[in-house]
Amino acid sequence: xxxxxxxxxxQRYEEILVMQRQLFDEMVAEKRATGRVNDEHLIxxxxxxxxxxxxxxxxxxxxxxxxxxxxxxxxxxxxxRGGDITYHGxxxxxxxxxxxxxxxxxxxxxxxxLLEEAVIxxxxxxxxxxxxxxxxxxxxIDKDTPHExxxxxxxxxxxxxxxxHGLALNVNTELSPFTLINPCGFVDxxxxxxxxxxxxxxxxxxxxxxxxxxxxxxxxxxx
Length: 223
Description:
The chain has five helices and eleven strands. It is an alpha/beta fold. Strands 1, 2, 6, 7, 8, 9, 10 and 11 form an eight-stranded mixed β-sheet that branches. Strands 4-3-5 form a three-stranded mixed β-sheet. α3 (108-125) crosses α5 (204-220).
């Protein structure tokens, strides 16, 4: 059973991270002890402004000091997901699935592909063509053109086939904070959002519903 958790309004990153880690540790312990887990979890959340650095992050991709970020009320966290550096903030859907990949007969690469496909289907609902870029995890617009830009970042952690962390889809996100970093380590690619592509904001709750529906439909197709 997948339990859904969606707090209302922007949340501090640290509070959700603590929740994720607790659930993840409980699931890993249960899997180790019994070979399976009873409850899985899906957290959908907006975050207050925060910059996160993954396991492979290069600090030079943070373009201003952490003191300057604090002055702008932007938190910084070094975390255990894959990937480099990214920004989370209001208007962005951050989705954290804590699931047992073994139950769905998925490897990590297949799982990342499923996350990307859920985003691609969500963008299609809005008439936007999202694509994969070879060697660059996530979802992109205008692939292989000078205007190639990222609309969704993905970074996960997996232990005993239990997942944590996930994806961040820019919906109505204010994009200027991305200028404070080299997003995902890229210095020559832009960042965009659904609102920017359509030239108007969209209903955040509806976008969350579409993304969650697409993810769960794809996931359940593997049971």
